[in-house]
Structure formats: C-alpha cells, structure tokens
Amino acid sequence: MKYLNVRNKIANASQISLGMMRIANMPLTEIDALVKTALDNGINFFDHADIYGGGKCEEVFADAVGMNPSIRGKFIIQTKCGIRKNMFDFSKEHILNSVDGSLKRLKTDYLDVLLLHRPDTLVEPEEVAEAFDILQKNGKVKFFGVSNQKPYLIELLQKYLNSVGIEILFNQLQLSVAHTGMIDTGLNLNMKNPQSVNHDGDILEYCRLKDITIQPWSPFMYGFFDGVFLGNNEKFPELNKVIDKYANQYNITNSAVAIAWLLRHPAKMQPVVGSTNKTRVAEICKASEINLTRQEWYEIYLAAGNKLP
C-alpha cells in the first residue's frame, strides 16, 4: 500500500480508505476480521459518519476492534457531522455535540479528522471556526475537512478558519469512472455539449490548487446511488470489457482497476471503499501498486461512454 502525506500534516495516511457505512448489522467477529484484513493490507484510514446506522456503525466498530488507548494508534479515524433529519446543521452547538457523541461511541479521546457532511446553506462560518478551534485546543479533533462542498463555500469557511489557524485538508466527493462530471467539465471547456455544463464549480482544479485531498466516495457506482457499473451491468458493456482486459493484464480484480483509475489521477486522491467483504478489500488494495499509463486511463474513461471534444 502506498501512503499519502496530507499537506505535511498527516503522514502515512493510506492511499485507500475503508468506509464504515454498512457495518451496523454485521456480527462483531466479521467486523473485526474486515478491519484486520484492511490493516494487514496497508489500510489505516477508516471513514465514519455520525449518521451511519444512526451512530451504530461507530459503536460496533469500536466494540469489534476492542478499542482502547493501546491500539488507538493503529487507526486514522475520520468521521462526519452536520446531517440531521430533514436539515443540515453546521451550528457550533451541533458540531460540538456531534463530536462528543462520536467520541463516546468510538471509545476514543480524539478524532484524527472531522468532516462537515453536506453543505448547510444557513452556515455561519464564524461558528464553525469557533467550534473547530475549541475541538482542536481540547485535543478532541486533530484535523478538519468537508464533504460534497464547492469552492466558494470552502473559501468562505477558510476565511474564518484562518483566524484560528485551521486548514481544510479534505473534500469528500462522489467520483467514479462512470460518474465523472468534475473531470468532463475541464475537458470540454468552451464547448456546447452536455459535458461542458459545469455542475461542480471547477472543484477538481480548485482542490488541486489548494492542496485539498479529494476522497472519492461510491467509486463503483454510477449516478447518485443508481447502482454498480462493474460486472454484468448491461448499461456499461464496453466499460466492463476494457476494465476486464486490464484486470487480466495486471492480474488484479475489476474493482481494483476501477480504484487504480482514480489513483492514477495526479490530484493524489484517496478513494473511500465501502465493501464489507474482507477478500474483496484485500484485492482492491492491490490497486495501490498499479500505475495505469495515460493511454490506459483515457481508454477506460472513453469506454464509460465519455467523449473527448
């Protein structure tokens, strides 16, 4: 497994993160085996959110691994807050309360990373800065980021975070070879085709410019939870043909090819893999050792139905 050095602040963060959204109803022994497999294959970065399983995912993760101070250092733990029933909430009170809840469920004194989950249009950035400052000074959160947020909202938050010396290090965004809007826009500048429509505010280039690590979520999905594009999906026959070709060439699985495609981008992304199958997780980790050529990358991109101008 290769590792990231996130803006010289988080050293040795695994290039692939394991998402914990689907573990709520798994037996603790299976969760433990999944986590151990991830660790054995180089994954040390684990992604949570306070809403996953209504908080149960954080709780069973801690129970399964037997969380205690002596093993805490094995994990880089990230969680997210801000989503509530029928609303988003980036208020100071909610952020502080959410972190305390996550710490209790995760049985730890600190989080490595906290992300603001989805954008809150009623955000008061000075409150976010106050909350982050309190959390960092109290040792409850080391580093911060956002999820699904566009450049100018990040700029707004960063304006106030500058006053407390905190930087936004991550932005978790939906991205896969079959969901490439943020890539399409840049490739189709000055065109009038559908791919030229800018839905993402140039977020890819913005994050590269600001050294914000993009964490692609749902890397095997197309659309917004429409389904998995891999395998026998009749909507993507050419894509699967090409992916399978490179899976055979590199002696890896099709899932690993899909992750290798993301890792090949020079933005130095950190895909979040949500599989609960330990064998599949181990196989996906091989993507970190594959470096697709430029020609291979574009062949996969075009096979997904994308077009170059």
Could you tell me how far the N terminus lies from the C terminus, measured between alpha carbons in angstroms? 36 Å
By CATH, the architecture is named Alpha-Beta Barrel
Proportion in β-strands: 15-25%
Main pleated-sheet profile: 8 strands, parallel
- What is the general shape? globular
CATH third-level topology: TIM Barrel
Relevant CATH superfamily: NADP-dependent oxidoreductase domain
CATH top level class name: Alpha Beta
Task: Show unreliable segments.
Answer: none
User: Can you give the mean pLDDT?
Assistant: 96
Radius of gyration: 19 Å
Number of helices: 11
- Biggest sheet, strands in spatial order? 11-10-9-8-5-4-3-14
What structural class do you assign from the helix and strand content? alpha/beta
Number of strands: 14
Helix content: 25-40%
| Number of structural units classed as domains | 1
String of helices and strands: EEEHEHEEEHEHEHEHHEEEHHEHH
